[in-house]
Design a protein that fits this description.
Length: 327
């Protein structure tokens, strides 16, 4: 979808590094008791996240899933309010009321995420319907995992989107496990092939660790959507390096011993660093970028530490819309 400038390529690497460093720090904070509950990291899936989100414009929409810190980071959210949200601080993107599993950042078009499998898919469809009714050229992107690929709400949303030719992209992050269930044991056929039943293109990105391959596929789907040609289903094959959620101990090793090691050799950040060096970007510049991102995460943690918890008096704020009518 056109030639990307070196500036854009470096921004892709920056955002992948941000996701990796943010999630690595969040993992440590959970284990130290600094974050209540748990978090679900995108470590290993950064190329899929950034390739997709950077194919969108600032004014476009997206909805996430339970593994969704990376999505707003990929679309440009600052790290401080995101980290504060994970800890439950008042300066978080949802004033500390959403936490890791239910955060949103409307400033970058992130309409929210949910721990309920597949539940945010119709939110993206609704945003696409809104754009269609209002006559804008905005598009919406729905992220969901391979586990949600078997939820009925996905097919209801795909059906209506196909009927109405809505500007929406359904993107399956196929990291091959729904918690500990291998996708091939519960999913028949190829997920991307299911698009044919709804009259839309189905695209399977086998090299989901290649940020440019993902970006190309999503950019093409976005262009179709903006042109009024309707929705697309995209399946991206990727892999999560960490456990389903941080601190989870399932008691059995459900992944083959050599599987994770093989995927570690396809680390999306290292692969893209090698690509950037191959087109002439100096290793020293890339080292400086990594140091800069680590400093951003340190600043995000400092911002979080300095932020207050919400006052008990605001517990029921933002639950309802206060509507006043003039006499």
């Amino acid at each position: 979808m056109g030639t990307l400038t070196n500036e854009t390529l470096l921004e892709m690497q920056r955002r992948m590094l941000r996701i990796r460093a943010f999630d690595e720090r969040a993992s440590k904070m959970v284990k130290r008791g600094h974050i209540p509950g748990t978090v679900h990291t995108s470590i290993g899936q950064e190329a899929q996240v950034v390739g997709a989100t950077m194919a969108l414009r600032d004014g476009d929409y997206m909805s996430g899933n339970h593994r969704s810190h990376g999505h707003p980071i990929g679309k440009g959210s600052p790290l401080g309010p995101l980290m504060a949200e994970l800890v439950g601080k008042a300066t978080g993107v949802c004033k500390g009321k959403g936490g890791s599993l239910h955060l949103a950042d409307f400033a970058v078009g992130s309409l929210g995420e949910s721990g309920i499998v597949g539940s945010s898919i119709p939110i993206a469809m609704g945003a696409a319907l809104s754009a269609s009714v209002r006559g804008t050229d905005q598009v919406a992107l729905a992220f969901f995992g391979d586990g949600a690929a078997n939820q009925g709400v996905l097919y209801e949303s795909m059906n209506l989107s196909g009927v109405w030719k809505l500007p929406v992209i359904f993107l399956c992050e196929n990291n091959q496990y729904a918690l500990s269930t291998p996708a091939h044991t519960v999913t028949s056929g190829v997920i991307a092939d299911r698009a044919a039943g709804f009259g839309m293109p189905g695209v399977r990105v086998e090299e989901g660790q290649d940020v440019l391959a993902v970006h190309d596929a999503v950019s093409e789907a976005v262009a179709r959507a903006r042109a009024g040609e309707g929705p697309t289903l995209i399946e991206v094959v990727t892999y999560r390096y960490n456990e389903h959620s941080e601190g989870l101990r399932l008691g059995t090793d459900y992944r083959p011993a050599d599987e994770r090691e093989a995927w570690l050799k396809k680390d999306p950040i290292q692969l893209f660093r090698e690509h950037l060096q191959g087109i002439g970007i100096a290793p020293a510049e890339l080292d400086a970028l990594e140091a800069e991102v680590l400093a951003e995460v340190d600043d995000a943690v400092a911002f979080t530490d300095a932020s207050p918890y919400p006052e008990p008096s605001v517990a029921f704020d933002d639950l309802y819309t206060d509507t006043e009518y003039a006499a």
